[in-house]
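Hi R.,

Here's the chain you asked about this morning:
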Amino acid sequence: MALALFVVVIVGSIMVHEAGHFVSARWFGMKAERFFFGFGPTLWSVRRGETEYGVKAIPAGGFVKIAGMNRYEEMEPADEPRAFFSKPAWQRAIVLVAGSFTHFVMAAILLFVAMAFFELPRLVDGGPVRSNEVTEVVAGSPADEAGLRRGDRVVAVDGVAIDSFEQMRAAVASRPGEQIELTFERIGSTRTVPVVLAGREVDGQRVGFIGVASDQIAFQQWTAAEAFSGVWAGEYSLPTQTARSLVGIAQIFRPDSLATWLQQADGDTPRTADGPVSLIGAGQAASALARVGAFSSVIVLLAQLQIVIGTLNLLPLPPFDGGHLAVLTVESGVNAVRRSRGVPADWQVDPSALMPLTLAVLLLFGLFALTAIYVDIVNPISQLIQ
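And here is the predicted structure, written out as tokens:
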């Protein structure tokens, strides 16, 4: 089910991305000639009005053909007013960005669904918070002498409510040798017991010690209203997830990170979680998360993937949409200067001059993607999920 959801979301996001270009182009009166899923030979197509819709043999993306994207293509004179290059720069920019924008919209929707309908791990600064449920009691410790046992849930220290292991540890750390009132829940009943804290040395300081541990993750449930607010502010919010994705992308392309990741291609080096992951690896992770019952994390993973795809597509490199946007920005800037000097504002970047860079980017990212697929096959990312 998780893998099916993964495939549906990925295929759907491709079509929604292209629909962003298509709808915005039509909105501004541009002529959209083709709207296809896939590349290569055409398997099926149908014409509706002036647009041909269809499916091609290689399901590795999609495309929308807008008249005039290439100034040098042959075009009927009657179509020139509706050509891409005939429209104002701001309209062209919106059409170029619209595809990537849809990925962030889909990410926001997925994050809302994850928060509104599922429990999610509580996070602080991106890291999971441990639960206040006791999973270990040290023999002979103050907690052991007070009668605490595995499965108890500590809910207050001296009447102050706590809901995480970190809060409990902070509450006792500054009170070595003192007596506290510890409130905990056990099988539906609540008890309060006195506990005299022990003390131990940590980094040269004497801290309070109670003798319990927790390896459980704390979970959180949102209402629909809280989930809507959580999409825009908080640990799972779209801005926070986008910022972390940008940091993650930058870290992946560091030379030391790439070297560590490439070492994992032998299958013998343990897989780490800080390297790049292909769509195959993301699918493996989604299936593994579902197998351990973390279906909510599958939805968050899909949202993060949408953010990464949208971000990468905005890179100012051809043939990405960000590359076309960069060309448009340069042309607009140069023509603004020419216009101020009374020179015809008709300068444009020669597409043939960009072809070597386009081929280099395609080659680099193609090799990168193939390597990521190979690493995910011989050293699956799913082995990190337990």
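One quick note: The longest strand covers residues 32-48.

Cheers,
M.
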